[in-house]
Write a structure and sequence with these properties.
Length: about 200
């Protein structure tokens, strides 16, 4: 791990307002315990190169393994409560409204909206993700609108491929609907619940 990667890596800002958006991002993060949960209305992508990362997600501990792209709807409260290893990992965020506009397979979207964490199930596909994230980081640093457009198209394509071979991380209520997933969270506002309902039935 290069010193420059550690220097450039992000950690959670505990002073950031709840629900403040990240927008379109692709960054390196450093494992760090979070003093409180975070929530933001983006799809979050995590990829560990080594070690593990354990989230408290919807009241349960969920551990991410290295080398497997993992995604979740970050409007659900999530908090890093444990980790192994010091290697930086990749994080990308995509505005959830954009994800819905992509018209991904309904079953895949419903899993995400019901609060599931999903990971890549195909080892051969997973082997390419490290290279993909490095390219996206380069696109962000290039300050080129064309490169960022290419990155966004590749992110959409990556989610479409993930929809072909995903697995659930940890346990989830098989009967949970997107509306029930938000209703179970004390922090969800009525506006957020309405947004989920409209998106689900659109």
């Amino acid at each position: 791990m290069a010193d420059s990667e550690i220097y450039d890596a992000h950690t959670f800002d505990q002073g950031r307002p709840d629900l403040e958006p990240y927008g379109w991002t692709c960054e390196r993060w450093r494992p760090h315990l979070m003093g409180r949960p975070d929530r933001h209305n983006e799809l979050e992508l995590n990829l560990l190169r080594s070690g593990t990362l354990t989230y408290l997600h919807r009241g349960k501990r969920v551990t991410l393994e290295p080398g497997r792209l993992t995604i979740f709807w970050a409007l659900q409260p999530h908090q890093i409560v444990d980790f192994e290893g010091e290697d930086v990992y990749y994080v990308a965020t995509i505005p959830f409204t954009t994800v819905l506009q992509w018209r991904l397979p309904p079953a895949f979207v419903n899993e995400i909206m019901a609060g599931a964490m999903l990971k890549e199930g195909d080892e051969e596909v997973a082997e390419l993700d490290d290279t993909m994230f490095e390219r996206w980081l380069s696109d962000v640093d290039s300050d080129s609108a064309e490169a960022e457009d290419a990155m966004r198209l590749e992110m959409e394509a990556r989610l479409r491929r993930l929809a072909l071979s995903y697995e659930t991380v940890g346990d989830r209520d098989e009967n949970a609907s997107p509306e029930e997933a938000t209703r179970a969270e004390d922090g969800f506002s009525n506006v957020e619940r309405m947004a989920v309902f409209v998106a689900t039935h659109y």
